[in-house]
Design a protein that fits this description.
296 residues; transmembrane helix (chains A, B); 0% strand; Four Helix Bundle (Hemerythrin (Met), subunit A); homodimer; 10 helices; iron (chains A, B); metal-binding (chains A, B)
């Protein structure tokens, strides 16, 4: 029976302290060979990994900036050009609709979706990030439902029919799918009552449906902004120029649409890059461990 | 030096001929062991692969059916409800716009994008499928450009400003990106003048931009159909009911929008499933071999 090999100087360090290594201390060619091997491994593995992390954070920063720009733009549009906000059934109540939908269904939703891609969240304690993901999505869902209430209230107050336009059909389907997704996520990934095969089956569906809901919410927002600008910008009403003459409000509205599309593309880029996915632990059970098991 | 092992009965067959195997002929426990091993490998590897292939073809069939439904629906809408087609600057010329954009930028584009995912195309002769992919995309691009010409011609004839709505901003960006993508694809993957590092760099960008263009084309189509229905369905014009009362044409237009969204989601599902990706050959060079090298 062979005795286990004695540790070398490079084996005693997690990181590679190149400058601290003294050949006399190690006293063998084997140590130098190992050092060269680790150096090669560093060049082959760690440099591309660092590059990938840096490019992720560039994308993530872009995602955060575009998200903030979308929220600021939609708030400014409705506060400055559409007369502000109220909750009295008037047109001022309608103004909550674009603000809440863009903030909830696009910006918060997109940020909640990419949360697991942030390397900072890859520590052992997945539960807190899982709860944050669920929390951000819950807030996004509440804002979206409030956004729908704003438009239904305004329509009912002014005897305007609900749910007739293509925009409204896509929008209501998006919110319904989002609610279903959130409830399924809660049952599948947080509550202990769901069986393991169901969770394993649910995960790819959850990921794909997540990206699809973002796509649908972008479709809803762009068609809604387009529709609103045609409704709002007509010639000879309160001295406004028609949409076709591209007054400043039209440029602002169109720019909001472009920002939303850019935000969506950046989020989908982050979601689709396999190098930016959270590394799964070796045991599948750890990944699918529900809330109560993790608590105990 | 050891002599190479003599072939066993199972090694002489590419497929596993369970029924033809005779233990007496093989004459060893090793053969039976190997048989059991291959059977296990068949259960572990081949059955999931077959399941994956079947589920791909179900999705692909759905993609083809939804694509055909989209084309039929947009043609019927414009032929039956919008008065048919002409190329004289009138409203009948405009009717080509939705037909050509939906057929080119959504249905043909989507089918061209998933072409490499069809297992039938995974043979050695990649060049013919590469040319078919480029050809389908070229046809899609030509139809899209003709679709733009239809609307520009109609607007210019009737002194309507071009490119002011959000729909038109997103639409023109989509077609411009599509053209850039097609030219970059031609230069990068078909012509021999592009260097190998450029091709390797281009491939993930080409794949991601491909999916993004589909997303943008869906956004453009939905916002365009929504806009058109608001323009076309107004009360007291030619006895038509307003959009808000959901006359049959509105239901048809909205259904077309839902079909387009469903088609897009199925295509993106096919594109995003890693199990359905074309297996890459061992040598990277074969993947990136340009047209003239493959020809020779």
């Amino acid at each position: 029976m062979q005795s286990p090999p004695s540790p070398t100087c490079s084996e005693t360090n997690d990181f590679l302290p190149l400058s601290q290594l003294r050949v006399e201390e190690c006293g063998s060619e084997r140590a130098i060979g190992k050092l060269i091997q680790e150096l090669k491994s560093y060049i082959v593995t760690d440099i591309p990994r660092m590059r990938s992390t840096v490019s992720f954070y560039v994308c993530y920063l872009l995602c955060l900036c575009l998200g903030m720009a979308c929220v600021m733009c939609v708030c400014y549009w409705n506060a400055h050009w559409r007369g502000g906000f109220a909750w009295d059934g008037s047109a001022l109540q309608f103004n909550w609709h674009p603000v809440l939908m863009v903030t909830g269904l696009v910006v918060l939703y997109g940020n909640g979706a990419v949360l697991y891609r942030v390397p900072l969240t890859w520590g052992e304690n997945k539960l807190s990030w899982k709860l944050l993901h669920a929390g951000v999505m819950l807030l996004a869902m509440v804002l979206s439902v409030l956004g729908l209430c704003a438009v239904f209230g305004n329509h009912n107050h002014n005897h305007i029919p609900n749910l007739y336009s293509l925009h409204s059909w896509v929008g209501i389907c998006t919110t319904a799918l989002f609610t279903t997704q959130w409830v399924a996520g809660l049952v599948g990934f947080l509550l202990p009552c769901s069986p393991m095969p169901f969770r394993k089956l649910l995960k790819p569906v959850h990921v794909w449906l997540g990206a699809s809901i973002l796509l649908l919410s972008i479709v809803s927002c762009i068609s809604g902004i387009n529709e609103k600008l045609f409704f709002a910008l007509k010639a000879n009403t309160n001295g406004t120029k028609p949409y076709a003459m591209l007054p400043p409000e039209a440029v602002l509205g169109n720019s909001l649409g472009v920002l939303i599309v850019a935000f969506g593309l950046v989020v989908l880029k982050i979601l689709s890059n396999p190098n930016w996915q959270r590394p799964e632990p070796r045991s599948n059970e750890a990944t699918y461990r529900p809330l109560l098991q993790e608590d105990t």
